[in-house]
Amino acid sequence: MSLRTLLLIVLLVPALLLGGAAALGLKIPVPSWGREYVMRFSLAEELAPPDLPAIAGPDDPALPLVVIDAGHGGRDPGAIGTDAQGRRVREKDITLAIALALRDDLLRAGRIRVALTRADDRIIPLAHRPEIARLLEADLFVSIHADSAGERDDVSGASIYTLSEEASSEAAARFAARENDADRLNGIAVEGTSAAVSAILVELSQQRTREDAIEFARLVLREGADRLAFHAQPRRAAALAVLRAPDVPSVLFESGFVTNRADRARLTTPEGRAQYAAVLARAIRVYFARRADIPPAGT
Question: Between the N and C ends of the chain, which has fewer C-beta atoms within 10 Å?
Answer without folding.
Answer: N
